[in-house]
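chain below, 328 aa
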Amino acid sequence: MSALDRTDPAGAVAAAAARCSNWGRWGDDDVKGTLNLVTDDHRRRAAGLVRRGAAFSLAQPFDMDGPQQGWRRRTNPVHTMLDTGVDAEFADQGLPHGIGGADDVVAMPLQCSTQWDGLGHIFDHGRAWNGRRASAVVTSDGDGVTGMETVAGDFTGRGVLLDVGRHLGTDPAGTGGELPDGFAITAEHLDATVAAQGPTSAVGPGDFLVVRTGQYGRTRRDGWGSYAGGPAPGLSFTTVDWLREHDVAAVATDTWGFEVRPNEFDDAFQPLHQVVIPHLGLFLGEMWALEELGADCAADGTYEFLLTAPPLPITGAVGSPINPIALK
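prediction:
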C-alpha cells in the first residue's frame, strides 16, 4: 500500500476496512471472527509441538502495583480478604470440629492487566464486528452478541513468537533487546524477524501471533512510568494487510495497546484497533509478559509452541483477564 497520509486517519481507516474486511466470511450470524480459523486439526497439530513439557506463564501480576493510572476508570486490581488465618485462629467462623478457612475477593476492570480485547470492544462509525449496529450488540446489560463467553473454548492452538525487540532493537541492559517507544513495527520488520528466527516462526492461518517488543521488560527494570496509555513500540497501521493475508487467529503483544504510540497520524486514537476488531474480527491480546518465553525461544531456537489462553466466560464481557500458558 502507499505511504500513510498523516493528516487523514479517517480515510486510511476506511480504505483499510474496504480492503481487508471479513464481514460475511463466516456467515451473517458469526460471533467468533478470526477464531474460526482455529480448527480441530490445527489444535491437534499444535499439541504435537510440546516436546520438553516446559510451561511459561505469559501473564503480568494482577495486583495493586500494576500499570494502571485511572484512565477511563481503569484501576489496578483490589484484592480483599474476607476471612483470614487470624479469623480461623482467634475468631468464631461458625464452622464445626475446628475447621477454618480463608476467602477473598477481587474487584477490577476486566482489561487492567494481561487480557484479550473482545469483538464488542471497538466499533467503527457505530458498527461492530460483521457489520452489526453497535447499539444492537453492546448495551447496559453487556455484549449480548459477541460476549467473551461465546469464545471461551477457542483460544488454544499454535502460538508463534516474533521477538522483534531481540532481533531489531538494542540491548542496553543485557536482557534480550528492546524497541524504543514510538517504534512502528511494519510488515517488513515482521518478515525480517521471521527470516532471522528461522522456520519455526513462519506464521500461517489460524496461528496465535505473539509479538515481543521488550517494553514490558523495560518496565520491570525501570518502573511502570507511562506504560498504560503512553508512548510505546507497536504494530504499524500498515500491518493490517499483513495480518489479513496471514489469516492469524489473534495477535498479542507485551504493550498496553498493541499498536504503536503515538499513533502514526497527526490526530488519531488507536486507528488499527478501529480496523482489525470490527472489520477483521481479530482478537487482540495486550500487556502480556514475554521476557521468560523470549529468552527460552532464543536459547533453543524454537519459536512455536502450544498456546492456551482462554478468557473467563463472563457473560456479556467485551474483554477478559487471562493467564496465557505457552507449552514447549
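The chain is about 25% helix and 15% strand. The mean pLDDT is 96.
thats it, cya
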